[in-house]
Amino acid sequence: MKSDDAIMALGALAQEDRLAAFRLLMMEGDQGLPSGAIAERLAVAPTRMSFHLATLEKAGLLNARREGRHIHYSVDYLRMRSLLGFLIEDCCGSNPDICCFPISEPIQETH
Fold this sequence. Notes:
With about 110 residues, the protein is α+β, with helices and mostly antiparallel strands. The chain has helices at about 5-15, 15-30, 35-40, 45-60, 75-90, 90-95; strands at about 35, 60-65, 70-75. Strands 1-3-2 form a three-stranded antiparallel β-sheet. Strand 2 (about 60-65) and strand 3 form a beta hairpin. The longest helix is centred in the first third of the chain and has 13 residues, at about 15-30.
């Protein structure tokens, strides 16, 4: 992944409704959800959610497919893996294995 692509993807995720929609779709798997269901579950106006979903799609994070009058969105998992790979590519002195940790265990943040 190129830096410009990563910046676009991260920028698309850097908004509360878009991040919530992306996380919801991550849980739904390949089937995804229609835009109206996403808006309803997140209590966001449908037109506003459509705008946010289009932003995520333009950034390459979502796939969209039309089914009749509805547009179903799902996560582009290859693109997401590419973004995560880009972020940890040079981690820990170019040894990303050191950065691996079980996802189910929360990381203790230190500030």
